[in-house]
Write a structure and sequence with these properties.
single chain; seven-stranded parallel sheet; 15 helices; alpha/beta; elongated; six-stranded parallel sheet; Rossmann fold; 2 domains; 376 residues; 13 strands; Glyco_trans_4-like_N; 16% strand
Length: 376
Amino acid sequence: MRVLHIITNLTMGGAEMMLYKLLQTTNRDRFEFVVISLSGEGTFGELFKKAGVSLHSLGMKAGKPSVKAVWRLRHLIRSIKPDLIQGWLPHGNIAASLSRVFLGKQVPILWNIRHALYNVQHYKKSTVKIIKIGAMPSKRTAKIIYNSRISAQQHQAIGYAANKTVIIPNGFDTQQFQPSQAAREKLRNTLQIPENTFLIGLIARYHPDKDHANFFKAAARLTKAHENVQFVLAGRDVELSNPVIAELVQQQKLAGRVHLLGDRRDISDLTAALDIATSSSYTESFPNTVGEAMACGVPCVVTDVGDSAWLVSETGKVVPPRDSEALAQAWMTLMGTEQRKHLGEAARQRVMDNFSLTTITRQYEQLYEQTIRLIT
């Protein structure tokens, strides 16, 4: 079965990472994959090629589709002759539906929606327009895949076809993300952190939705009660060269207590080195970094947004968003419990039972097979 994936771009992001993991783990004897990026090859382009995936990029500029790019898309679709087309992200979904017109025959279309709709004011205007436009053509898809229940509910509320809904959460590589004493020792040695220091982390790019301010306020509260605690933060623009981050560190008097590592590629090692992982977001869909921490056997404190509480379940703590006092108190509770190790073990087991990459990949494979059977 030849499956064509059409995605907005291939920069570093959750959707792009999930597609990459899916391409790596799907049964290649049964499925052949082709990928079209509407913009450029981005961060993942070379990785896709190394994985043996046929990749094409159209070079579209954000919000500015060109006649040349659309014509090339038409040519590619006709030459690829896919059995099934799957869109990713708002623009990729619309392009997937448009592609069926180019083929001149009924090829099933799947959409993949990876975002919640809490704060669309932070989205580009062109993206907001595409999301709204998507309600009508959503009714002609075979299925709409959402990675979170909250995302499905929010899209259905603006007119997306409810009867097309399929929930397939993110999947996690439990071999890459696993408990590691070596990673713990390495990070502490590198950052010169004493072994007995309690380490709390936040892995998230700088963005208003991630609410780093909430994290820093909670950190300031905790340091007043506990001397023996430090904080590690990693993600794009999470460094002192970011004036907002620098001001937060200064305001909360956290110099010497926080380690700002910026964009990193060793996330599995960083995560496994933590005592507690955190998601302080005030909007979220299905948080990858929380699932990765759970796979590493690290208990999590998360804000009650998106599917975070469902993901963590009884293995961690859930607090209201934008409540630094509650966040600090949850940290304190986990720091003081002898059950923390058992919570981490339960967290890893929950991921292995419900959210392993193998399990999620099989759900995609089954959906592809079921969709094709419906038209044959």
